[in-house]
Design a protein that fits this description.
Blueprint: H1 2-28, H2 35-50, H3 60-87, H4 106-109, E1 119-121, H5 131-139, H6 141-149, H7 151-174, H8 181-196, E2 203-213, E3 216-218, E4 235-244, E5 247-256, H9 262-278, H10 285-296, E6 300-303, E7 306-309, E8 311-312, E9 318-321, E10 331-332, E11 348-356, E12 363-364, E13 370-373, H11 385-397, E14 403-404, H12 405-410, H13 417-425, E15 429-432, E16 435-436, E17 443-452, E18 457-459
Helix pairs in contact: 1-2, 1-3, 7-8, 9-10, 11-13
Amino acid sequence: MAAVKEVEDLDKNALQNGDDEEDLDAVEEGENKDPAKKKKKKKKKKKAETEGGEPGLINATQKIDAEKIEDVAAEGDEKKKKKKKNKSKSGKGPSKEQTNPPTIPIAELYPDGNFPEGQIMEHGPAEGIDERTAKERFSSEEKRALDRLHQDIYHEIRHAAEAHRQTRKYMRDWIKPGMTMIQICEELESTARRLIGEDGLKAGLAFPTGCSRNHCAAHYTPNTGDTTVLEYDDVVKIDFGTHINGRIIDCAFTLSFNPRYDPLVKGVQEATEAGIKASGVDARLCDVGAAVQEVMESHEVELDGQVYQVKPIRNLNGHSIGPYRIHAGKTVPIVKGGETTRMEENEFYAIETFGSTGRGQVHDDMDCSHYMKNFDQQFVPLRLQSSKQLLNLINKNFGTLAFCKRWLERAGASRYAMALKDLCDKGVVDAYPPLCDIKGCYTAQFEHTILLRPTCKEVISRGDDY
């Protein structure tokens, strides 16, 4: 403001000098014959000559004034540049640019801890809740105060979300047909570990990278020695998670390289958006499922001359998320029916939808790779020393987060097959085999993590890609 005001004062001085010159010219032309004014004319003329100027020309004073104006303008530009640089350090943008491939931890890009917000949406009206009540949440001072009480949690989950966004942005361009599934998973996981700043149970990956293909809908990650290659005609679901202090981002997308699968992928993505829109504080879980099914079944895909309706996989669901707990107890269906339980403030949900050209129902199949310690299991006595050692390794490296066989080996486990089976048999650890529809069909998946803040609904994992 000060710079702008100084420029205005200098402009007024310049204009005043210009008016004086017009008066001198008028006197010289004989338009004013008054003797007093002639005397005044001589004084002004003499003053102009002593300052090095001539009547009708820009004098030295005006030159100095012009230089001052230029200096002030330059000073203003410099301040704008500094302000622009400082803005990147205020949490509204990264303090420096990410590399390609990404190598700089997210915490270094946002040193003030103010990570980007997700998409902000109003809580929509729910069954038995009028629209006005839902909209008032956004402006309620009481709800804003509740929002401020949970800022630490919001920062942690946004940190995890930014690591997920930047990892998947890189991987979506990097993944190509001809790569092995192990190669894809290892590149994704090493990238995500760098960006999240892996630190034991404080920060890292929340569960193994799912890269389920075609009729396999979920829970497949390659075990050591798996030579499976990604093909041009594959439809692959990339499902991975990141966490900070147990605050989990669960987010997935589908990649296909042959455009004939685009209608399938589009139908599932639009169904996920419908589920997000229907979610919110006081929304009933069954209503979310109904919205998802309606949109998904409105799509169809033609493959080899046959038209298939896109069916929701009715025994797969979204779910609530808790600290260090990927499935926290509430289930979000993707078909009509289900529980009338309502969503509540400050709950996290994975809005997750699966579509299929097959039966629309999955079953366990193929070799198991996903495992997770039972969150509710009490102490169980173990007789085998190898089981005790393996459980200690799981507690130290994963806690109640999911893991896979590759990760056990990375943590130093060897000859663990019998011990792992013993832990599963005793209910200490649960196995999660790959989930498949009928062979020959194709499945797709999209998923976002949402946070039901008191004031609004935040789609935390939202990015430019989906």
